[in-house]
Every structure is written in structure tokens, then in C-alpha cells.
Amino acid sequence: QVIEIKDLAKGPASQFAIEKSKKFWNLPTSCAQANWHQTRQMSVIKPNGCDLAKQKFNIISGVRSFTKKKTIVIKEINTGYDARFWNYAENSVKAGVLTAAFFSDKRVIDIKGLKGFNKLASFLPEINFTIVGESEISVIDFIDLEPNVEVIGVQSKTQMKKLYLKNKFYFQGSRLEGLPNSLCEAMLCGCVPIGSRVFGIPDAIGNTGILFDTNNDLEKISQFIKSDIGFENFKKARKRVVQNFDISIRTEKIKKRDNEENSCVCCTNVHLIFIYRLPINVILTHYLVCKYKNV
């Protein structure tokens, strides 16, 4: 049983999903639902969730699945990315396959598809594969890593950019996501995307890389990696994110939303409270503000 509460948009837009084998009471779920009950309008990513993830992995997702208040106005506002910072030189020499997340426990390893990443590496022993974000655990304790797979710890923003610039492909094999930040950042830096066909991953990738459904597709992906991929593919990946998910697009949507009557800016920040495990007085204050000030 896995509960996933994520700030997927670095702001008021969030995605809420639960993966479960049976119904059970949960405090974050209940508080989020209570918060939504006081809300007139919210901005989220994938408000209706992902049907394919429900079919394949029994993941219930989308804010509509967790609130009975049908009068809430729900608007989709995607994450935005700074294309000025996340960039690359067109003459860059790139090689290798990269994946990144905050790997703090086995749950994250499973959700992010690291076993599939490692299996893909076994098809391509001559290519370097890098896992970024090991924290508090050792990935090797859970996966028998291939010799060409390197694991490094959590990196800074600048360090991540260097890794994006160095690697030719970015792998997003998650079964539970929003619009993945690392994937979009990597594409802006010219990485050719490889991703599972769930949640916001296909929205990010479009026709600029390759999408897959199961680990049975990994051999096909290995052939894609060995194919003639170069500068034009790098530019295509970057262009997709610039045109669809640039930070300016998100900014304009938020301005438009905030200018509308009865808009709500903080209604989904309850997700952040549980991510960072803030004190209970902060949680209650947030709830009371939403309830009595009609935010």
C-alpha cells in the first residue's frame, strides 16, 4: 500500500494519487479532502487522473477521484520551466542514459522504474547508465546493478544541469507521476526522452523520443538508443518543452486565474504540508484559513 502526495508544480498546482490494494483510512487523504470541501476553485495537473495507470497498476489518481464536491472549478495548469537556465550548446557531445529522483526508500525505487532502467542497461553493456538521487539508502541493496550502471547521490541544480548536458538520453520509467520536472529539464538540455506511457510523461515527450508500456519493450528501446540519433533530435526535444511548458506559459495562466472571481491560490498546499512533515499547528492553521477566510 503506497500513498503518494506530491507537489508536482512547485506551487499551487498539485497531483494527488493513491496506490492501494484495499480501502483504508489515511490522515493526509482525509485532511486533503476536508481542505477541498472548503474550496471553490483549484489548479492542478491531470485533474481526472490516468486511466492507463489505474488499469495497469491499480493507481487511483486525479483530484476528481477524491472529492465528492462536484461544484469545484478545477483548472489544469502545468508546470513551467526556465528555458534560459536549462539550455545546451548545439555542438554538445552527449553520451549515456540518465535517470533521477529522490531515492530514499524501496517504494520510490519501485515507483520510478529503476529495475527496468537496470534491465535496459543489460542490453547495452557498452553504454554508461547513471542513477541520480540516492539518499539514506543504497540502491544496490534492492537491485543487483549491472556493471555499466553508476549510482550517485542527490545533486544541486547546477550539478544536474551538467549531468543533463553530458547524457544523450533521459529515462522516465515511472508508474506514478505528474508532469515530471527532471524529464522536462533534461529535454531542455537536449536529452532525448524515454518514458512510460502514463500520467504526464506522454504529454512531455510527444513525438520527440520513445514511449513504452512494459519492461517487455526494453529491447525495442535498446534498438532506439543504438539508432542514428543526433543534433536534430536534441533540438526537437528542447523545442517541445519550450513551446508547451515554458515558465512564461504557466505564469500567464496563473495571472489569468488569479484575476478571475473566487479564485483560490493555496487550496492544494495541504499536499506540501505532508511532504515536508510540518508541525500539526501549521496544518491546522492552513485548514482554518481556508475554512473561515474563504480562500
Topology overview:
Layout: E1 2-6, E2 15-19, H1 27-37, E3 41-44, H2 51-57, E4 59-61, E5 73-76, E6 97-103, H3 106-111, H4 114-123, E7 129-134, E8 149-153, H5 157-166, E9 169-172, H6 181-188, E10 192-196, H7 201-205, E11 210-212, H8 218-226, H9 231-245, H10 247-258, H11 270-276, H12 280-292
Parallel strand pairs: 3-5, 6-7, 6-9, 7-8, 9-10, 10-11
Antiparallel strand pairs: 1-2, 2-4
Helix pairs in contact: 4-8, 6-9
Keywords:
3-stranded antiparallel beta sheet, alpha/beta, 17% strand, 38% helix, 295 residues, 6-stranded parallel beta sheet
Q: State the major sheet.
A: 6 strands, parallel
Query: What's the helix-strand series?
Result: EEHEHEEEHHEEHEHEHEHHHHH
Low-confidence stretches: 1-16, 18-24, 262-278
Q: Between the first and last Cα atoms, what is the distance in angstroms?
A: 33 Å
Strand content: 15-25%
Q: Pairing-aware structural class of the strands and helices?
A: alpha/beta
Radius of gyration: 20 Å
Share of helical residues: 25-40%
Helix count equals 12
- Trace the largest sheet across and list its strands: 8-7-6-9-10-11
- Basic shape: globular
Total beta-strand segments = 11
Mean pLDDT, all residues: 77
Write a structural description.
Mean pLDDT is 77; it is low at 1-16, 18-24 and 262-278. Helix 7 links the parallel strand 10 and strand 11 (210-212). Strands 8-7-6-9-10-11 form a 6-stranded parallel beta sheet, sandwiched between helices. The chain has a 3-stranded antiparallel beta sheet with strand order 1-2-4. Helix 4 crosses helix 8 (218-226) and helix 6 (181-188) packs across helix 9. The longest helix is centred in the last third of the chain and has 15 residues, at 231-245. The two termini are 33 Å apart. The protein is built from 12 helices and 11 strands. With 295 residues, the chain is α/β, with parallel strands linked by helices. The protein is globular, with a radius of gyration of 20 Å. The chain is 38% helix and 17% strand.
